[in-house]
């Protein structure tokens, strides 16, 4: 997508400029990339944003037919009773600045202590959570 490159162009930003699409994990995968790029010194800071809008019923219908959605409309992360997921909309953005770039006038709202990315690998289905793999990525952060 050209959106991230347009933001870089408009604000005169240099360094990595990318759009990441990993379905529901896109924003966190983008945050992980930004954290790693700032820690490696590839950039001094990063704008990370994400948005999910459900503009059409077609995906809902397809996901329902594929039995990907929770029939009781409840997410049960890390629960043996997990039976699908619940769709939702949202948007957010953050500006990350490498600790070395902070000045005495900067007032950080949070500190990213760690991040990690993986794929669940084989599980009950393509979209079914794999508890051990998700625990592994949490430990890796």
TrEMBL record:
PROSITE patterns: KS3_1 (PS00606), KS3_2 (PS52004). Residues 121-141 are annotated as: Disordered. InterPro entries: Ketoacyl_synth_AS, Ketoacyl_synth_N, PKS_Beta-ketoAc_synthase_dom, PKS_NRPS_Biosynth_Enz, Thiolase-like. One of its GO terms (molecular function) is fatty acid synthase activity. The keyword Ribosomal protein does not apply. It holds the Pfam family ketoacyl-synt. Gene3D superfamilies: 3.40.47.10. It comes from the Eukaryota. Keywords: Phosphopantetheine, Phosphoprotein, Transferase. Residues 1-141 form the Ketosynthase family 3 (KS3) domain. CDD domains: PKS. PANTHER family: FATTY ACID SYNTHASE, SI:DKEY-61P9.11. This is Ketosynthase family 3 (KS3) domain-containing protein. It comes from Vitrella brassicaformis. The lineage of its organism: Eukaryota, Sar, Alveolata, Colpodellida, Vitrellaceae.
